[in-house]
Specification:
The chain has about 230 residues and is of the alpha/beta class. It has two domains: about 100 residues, Skp domain (Protein Binding, DinI Protein, Chain A, 2-Layer Sandwich), CATH 3.30.910; about 100 residues, 2-Layer Sandwich (Protein Binding, DinI Protein, Chain A). It is about 50% helix and about 15% strand. The strands form four sheets. Strands 2-4-3-6 form a four-stranded mixed beta sheet, covered by helices on one side. It is elongated and about 80 Å long. The N and C termini lie far apart (about 110 Å).
Length: about 230
């Protein structure tokens, strides 16, 4: 009887061991797709990200495509693509750290695991910069800005009487530099007033800003009104 009990106990232990091994095999995270972040080695927590959708929402990449450039189009195209890669990778890392992930792959690149495999594409896009600014920043700071607007400097200057008067003079005329300074001071005051009143982080030259959320507002007329001429 003792031997029978031992055999039964041994059988139960064997079955339990096999069950544990089976569960471990089922729960193991399988990495089969392109890895965007981390490593497959001993990975336990993972997620997927549609990297093409992320790039399509990256304002640097959006600007590159709007200008019909590719990553191999000379120095400009190569630099813009490299910059887009840097901001995209930085966003992936932020999300991975926040979610305590071991690996991120493209969709369909993960299976198994003890937790549902989530698609974190939207979370990565949310970490991208909102703006890419190539034009001149007229007021404020464009770095990490949450709200940037644009204005047309030529239109604003043309609305300033002192600037218009200076246009008919040369540098040798007595009033030329005085009028130019008067005009530029008025220009600066108007731009800063618009930025302050609107709560904008930065005002940039028209045509030089790309936003991943849509068109950038033009405040030229508001700046002209702020001149008080």
């Amino acid at each position: 009887m003792a031997r029978a009990i031992q055999r039964r106990v041994g059988g139960v232990l064997l079955l339990a061991s096999l069950a544990l091994l089976f569960c471990a095999a089922v729960d193991a995270l399988q990495v089969t797709g392109q890895i965007l972040y981390g490593s497959a080695d001993k990975a336990q927590r993972g997620a997927v990200v549609d990297i093409l959708a992320v790039y399509a929402s990256n304002p640097i990449y959006m600007r590159m495509k709007a200008e019909r450039l590719s990553e191999t189009d000379g120095a400009r195209g190569s630099k813009m693509f490299a910059d887009a890669q840097v901001t995209t990778n930085r966003s992936l890392v932020k999300v991975a750290h926040a979610e305590k992930l071991d690996v991120i792959t493209v969709p369909g690149g993960l299976s198994g695991g003890s937790e549902p495999i989530r698609d974190l594409t939207a979370a990565v896009i949310d970490q991208l910069p909102l703006y890419h600014v190539e034009g001149r920043v007229l007021a404020g700071n464009a770095a990490d800005a949450r709200l940037i607007v644009e204005l047309d400097s030529e239109q604003l200057l043309a609305a300033i009487p002192a600037w218009r008067e200076s246009q008919s003079l040369t540098e040798n005329d007595v009033n030329f530099h005085f009028l130019r300074k008067q005009a530029l001071d008025a220009f600066e005051r108007a731009v800063k007033k618009v930025a302050r009143d609107g709560g904008y982080d930065a005002v940039a030259e028209k045509g030089g800003t790309t936003c991943r959320l849509g068109p950038v507002a033009d405040v030229t007329q508001a700046a002209i009104a702020a001149l008080g001429c």
